[in-house]
Amino acid sequence: MDEYIVLMRLDLLTKEKQPTPEQLKGYMEQYHAWIDGIVAKGQFVGGKGLSTQGKVLKSKGVITDGPFAEIKESIAGFIIIRAGSLEEAVELAGGCPILNGEGNSVEVRTISVEHKL
Description:
- It is built from 2 helices and 6 strands, in the order βαββββαβ.
- By secondary structure, it is of the alpha+beta class.
- A hairpin with a 5-residue loop joins β3 and β4.
């Protein structure tokens, strides 16, 4: 099985788009249930949430604030899963509760294990 990274994107900055504490609790319960299903299949490798603080380095020494470009959508977190194909990884990622939010997205990418310098 190959490994895939599942990047979860949503607007973490616009105050009006932030969930209430009650909504957040419900969202986290859905998220943990989704992860538990992947763990039960033996396909969960790991994952982390990401903060909204950071820097973006660009060519010619340009450094900007934030882990985002000119849009408010940023990567909220990621998980790494094992799957037999990209299609299977996409199917697993399709259950991510983040997709229930308007404008949110999930990106699935194959993790390349061989980089020779």
